[in-house]
Amino acid sequence: MLHQDHALKLGSKFLAGGFDWFGRNSRVIITTRDKSLLTCHGIERIYEVEGLNCGKSLELFKQVAFKTKKVDSINDDIVNRAISYASGLPLAIDVIGSNLAGTPITEWESILDKYKRIPPHNIQNILKFDLGKIRANYDHCIKHDVRVLVDKSLIKIHRFGNVILHDLIEHMGKEIVRKESPDHPEKRSRLWFHKDIVEVLEQNKGTSETKMIYLDCPSKEVVKNLNGDAFKKMTKLKTLVIKNANFSEGSHYFPNSLRVLEWEKYPSTRFSILNKASEIS
To answer: Which of 194, 260, 204, 262 is nearest to 231 (CA)?
Structure first.
């Protein structure tokens, strides 16, 4: 134990004065979600704890949701779906399991369908809190922010530059955007749900609020009634990616703000970039 005088002097920033406080054969294990805390204090041997494997995830989930490790195998499909949603994150397994505990398993299917579109708020609020602290404490340098997210174990960057983030981070981000305008997708800053995108394009509901569109239909859906001016009012659209969808015709115009355009099987041999926002009525 720390001497009281030392504890008062050190406050909440330090738990020990230095390596010389420990005996020769001591082993000190430090756990944190912030890698920078380890590197700045000279910790050289760092082990990154992986998410729980399927077996451990299942064991934890059964313990939380059923209060036992023995569960009828007839429920395996729905149980496996619940733990796959958590992607090995113990916090997610605990929250989801607690939310489902006491609920008839016949109702789990509809609850998990809801979680897929709107994540459990306990998890979402915790993740929002972590990300919010990062944005509040650091400047707007993209490289710096990315490094902080890596240090906080919120994203991973593979050797070839691919960025991997936990499914729950992705779901949280989508839910934040959905709440920008729950009933009017054309007023959201980003669109990815194929039904919302098709509605906006076919009914020519585009607005200057939309900055990104990513359309990847679950099946090769045919968009028959694309309005030729569908993108004309999207004066702040920067990214447009369309995959796995067939359009009966292309767009007459794309906004000058566009920086990334990827459209598989574009249904025309030509398109125009609208140079002046003032041309839009």
So the answer is: 204
